[in-house]
Amino acid sequence: MKNISIILLLLSLFSCSGNGNKSANRLLKDAEQYRAQGNLKESITSLKSIILNYPN
After folding, report:
1. PROSITE patterns in the record, alphabetically (predicted)?
2. Alpha-carbon Rg of the chain, whole angstroms?
3. Which pLDDT score, from 0 to 100, does residue 22 have?
4. Which one of 13, 18, 46, 55 has the largest count of C-beta atoms within 10 Å of its C-beta?
5. Which of 54, 51, 1, 42 is nearest to 18 (CA)?
6. Residue 29 to residues 5, 33, 36: CA-CA distances in angstroms?
């Protein structure tokens, strides 16, 4: 539960994603790639973009 709270907090901090017109699938692939590389901030930013731009 603590990890989820931290992730949600970080998601709220990154309001400007700069991901342009990427599709939800592309953003998810980017997030997975960033996570595999250990770049968690960029991964979270991509995931937040999915939530904000594709809420359904």
Report:
1. PROKAR_LIPOPROTEIN
2. 11
3. 80
4. 46
5. 42
6. 23, 6, 11
- Calpha distance 53→1 (Å, rounded): 25
Q: Would you give per-residue pLDDT tens digits along the chain (56 residues)? A: 677 777 776 666 554 455 567 889 999 999 999 999 999 999 999 999 999 988 87
Other CB atoms within 10 A of residue 37 CB: 10
Q: How far is CA 53 from the centre of its chain?
A: 11
**pLDDT at position 7, please?**
72
Model pTM?
Answer: 0.60
DSSP structure class, residue 22: -
Instruction: Tokens for 25, please give them.
Output: 């699938």
